[in-house]
């Protein structure tokens, strides 16, 4: 079987277009939630199935390596997409539904026939595999994680310019000590997720 040993293998064996799906920013206190989706060509060899593509979990890569590999993903993919759920949608729908919405936007137009996700149980009629740590067993999911992370990091760097003082370019909206201190001093910005408890507590303490 071509690509034996990867999560895509049983779908590839049936001749299906498989999209890997992964998200970035699900647990952040600020900024959008981003989902990447990638359809890769069938791996050409079963001898080293994961080595045929250089893609790995985005969290294990340096920012520079992620940017380089994001361009490589776009070059080799049969199709790719990025979906964004804005802060207002995360607050209104909740994180899970906002993730589903962003995933639907990422997959729109890709003509995927099967899905592999990183423990993300999407509402879909397509056959789907959703094991934990899927990026370690699926080059498509690893590629999707890279696209999602790089795109979201760029958005957070732009938000850092629009809302200086919070350190968005450094912590990307996650709950670091620096971010906590900025919330205490400045109160929440318009791009903070006000449905999240640490931010809601910051609202109570926000300056007049």
TrEMBL record:
Q: What is its EC number?
A: 3.1.26.4
UniProt cofactor(s): Mn(2+); Mg(2+)
> Ranges for the RNase H type-2 domain?
16-208
Which Pfam families does the UniProt entry name for this protein? RNase_HII
Q: Where does a divalent metal cation bind?
A: 22-23, 118
Q: Which residues cross the membrane?
A: none
One GO molecular-function annotation for this sequence? RNA binding
One GO biological-process annotation of the entry reads: DNA replication, removal of RNA primer
Assigned keywords, A-Z: Cytoplasm, Endonuclease, Hydrolase, Manganese, Metal-binding, Nuclease
Where, per UniProt, does this protein localize? Cytoplasm
Q: Which reaction does it catalyse?
A: Endonucleolytic cleavage to 5'-phosphomonoester
What is written in the cofactor note of this entry? Answer: Manganese or magnesium. Binds 1 divalent metal ion per monomer in the absence of substrate. May bind a second metal ion after substrate binding.
- UniProt keyword Metal-binding present: yes
Which top-rank group of organisms is this from? Bacteria
Gene Ontology cellular component terms for the protein in this record: cytoplasm; ribonuclease H2 complex
Q: Give the matching InterPro entries.
A: RNase_HII (IPR022898), RNase_HII/HIII (IPR001352), RNase_HII/HIII_dom (IPR024567), RNaseH-like_sf (IPR012337), RNaseH_sf (IPR036397)
- Function of the protein: Endonuclease that specifically degrades the RNA of RNA-DNA hybrids.
Query: What is stated as this protein's family in its record?
Result: Belongs to the RNase HII family.
Name of the protein described by the UniProt record: Ribonuclease
